[in-house]
Fold this protein.
Amino acid sequence: MTLPLLDGIRIDGLPVEQLYPGWIALERHPVVGQFEVILFQDEDSGRQACWWIEEGAYKGSHVMALRPDVQNRLLTGMDPVFWPLAEGVLGGDIRDDATSFRTDLPSIAFRELSGLWLGRHAPHAIFIAAGHADSGEALTCPDGKPVAEGRMKALLSARRGTDVLVVSSPFSAMPVRAQIEMKLGTATAYRFHDALENSVFYLVWNEATPGNRPSFYYPRGPLLISDDPSGPLIPGWILEWFAQHSGHADLIRAARPFLPEDFGVGQASSLRTPRVPQAAPAAAVVKPTDPAPGKISDNSPEVTEIRESEPVQRRSFLPELPLEPPPVLQSPHKKGLFGRFKSLLGRDDQ
């Protein structure tokens, strides 16, 4: 008996009548031209997979597994969707001809398409492990744009809060405000635009490990800095998100730039200020302990002990002059309570 969603599907010229145990067909969608995609799921693990169909014939279980001629027909058919986005909003300005969007395709299928399409048409992004940024060294992106010393290390130290994310641009070092937040399944990406350098970059957090530092993606580089195992997939995920969300252009146009008041309202993350040497600590005042039980107090005035901290060597802007030591002044002997009574009676002993 033929399964309903597999009606008319042939493998090696024969109709499909059963699947591997535990797998069920969930959805069937037209893609482009004579291509269709069927979504399957393992009932036990929830794992999903796709079949790519052309004119009713099974062609492969992943876009990468398709024969070159079949793959070329499928990806070429997706050009109207991906080209305006890849050459526009992904790494630069929004294009008016970005009008084709797809919200009907399963995410797993769309990601296969976007990732392979981008890898085929765009220059391969240079991939660097985030650990290389720990040295704080300056670097030059593949397109020649420089990143000054310490900026990438500061950027990858960014932490998210409850307000709009504000970071320091690795290119101009100026504060920039996140324009949009993109949910990418198990990850969240933030798009930033550095107006001074006319550069777009992204920070991406893996929500499975939100405490880890983010990945950095600069499409025009193209440069990708990440410690995440799924880091190489990030460019395709972002392209797929744009292709599914037709309202992204309005969100980006409505996003306001960074304003000075954001220091108090938003979260300025990874903004670094010069370290200022701290002044010498104040002298510690230590009060004497209470007299031991049974010890008679002489009711003398309270005495405090001053512990001076070690002097801090500072270079003065004044010339060093030979100064004579100040004269030593003799202070009168302090009188106790009994001595003060004698003074009141005019009987001071010389």
